[in-house]
Amino acid sequence: MPPRAPFSPGGRRCPDGADEGGAESATHTLAKICPHSLQLVVLELDPGTRKASTSLSRRAFLQILRFFRNRPLAPPPSPATFAPMILALDIGGSAIKAAWADEPDAITPMGRIETPRTDFAAFVETLRGILAAMPSRPEAVSISICGVTDIETGRMICANVPCIDGRLLDAELQAALGLPVTVANDADCFALAEAGLGAGLGHDVVFGIILGTGVGGGLVVDNRLANRRGGYAGEWGHATILATSAGTPPVEIPHFPCGCGRAGCVDTVGGARGVEKLHMHLSGEARDSREIVVGWAGGDPAATRTMEIYVDLIAAPLALAVNITGASIVPVGGGMAGAPGLIPALDKAVRSRILRQLDRPLVVPAQCALEPGLVGAALLGLDRFAYA
After folding, report:
1. What is the pTM of this model?
2. Which residues, other chains included, contact 122 with Cβ-Cβ below 8 Å and sequence gap of 6+?
3. CB pairs under 8 A, 24+ apart, for 112-120?
4. What does the alpha-carbon distance between residue 356 and residue 328 come to, in Å, rounded to a whole number?
5. Alpha-carbon 138 to chain mean position
6. Main-chain dihedrals φ then ψ at residue 182, nearest 5 degrees
7. What are 94-149's pLDDT values in tens digits?
8. Four-residue CA torsion sign, 80, 86, 89, 90
9. Beta pairing partners, 111
């Protein structure tokens, strides 16, 4: 593999040290000496304006000038040298979504293909086919997946794709594909996407949560995953923690059994299937989660009662997670996040339960425009491989 071109603070990788970015004062001076050569300018981002400013000392600047004074001019960079750096994959139980990325703001979706769930050889061949469809061979593969890497054994725990369950997935794929591979949980990648390009931009601690079919979460600190080697940090959906009464007036709520083997987990009521289970318990009606949400918006008494108790039940464990992690923003993704009025109601309930007093929203809708799994995988891969 050819040596990787150095990173340009201006936003692209350039060959042979070429750089199109840099602080204005240094750029103007250096351009007179070496218009296409590397401009070694130390940049910092102002969190308020998100604009670059130079933190280059006079001494360092003079050293740069002396360094370049006797160097020949480099030729302008060729567009052909800007190769994709990372293949990002979002692997679920039904489909594999793919994209290639060479910068955080340059992520190009490639489409989707059915996931081979039970045949590992077919799974690997599918990934090879995606690699073959890229404009050029990437430097690494970064994967968001519906599973967890056991931090002690390094083995994948993934019920939705049985052929990878129990495998040392990153090592086996690296050997099969001939490229460095990193793997992260899909909720972690969601949180990373929101921290880097979504609602969490500019926040030091981002706790991203998923309210979908079930409940998930991921924790990002200083734009890095807490789960850098795998593990369960941010997984607020599974523990025996739910209250056994909720609502006004209070009503008893049983600890429903959970798929993880426990009972009383947030996952048992927090996702779409949980809302349906909760509504059945409270009203005796078998209704789809979408019907319940629509009924709530329309003032239906039974649906309103269910959703009020739903918010009461999940706000307490979410507030505890915020207190423990110190998160200053909680982006919410998943199908339930689209329910009209749910996120404002949850935000109000959580802020009333945490130690920190905030006069701004804490629990907010996710804002990442692209598929968060792909974006998170791309950001993870760029951080681990391209900028290392």
Report:
1. 0.78
2. 116, 163
3. 115/91, 115/161, 116/163, 117/93, 117/160, 117/161, 117/162, 117/163, 118/162, 118/163, 119/163, 120/163, 120/164, 120/167
4. 9
5. 21
6. -125, 145
7. 999 999 998 888 899 999 999 999 999 999 999 999 999 998 999 999 999 999 99
8. negative
9. 98
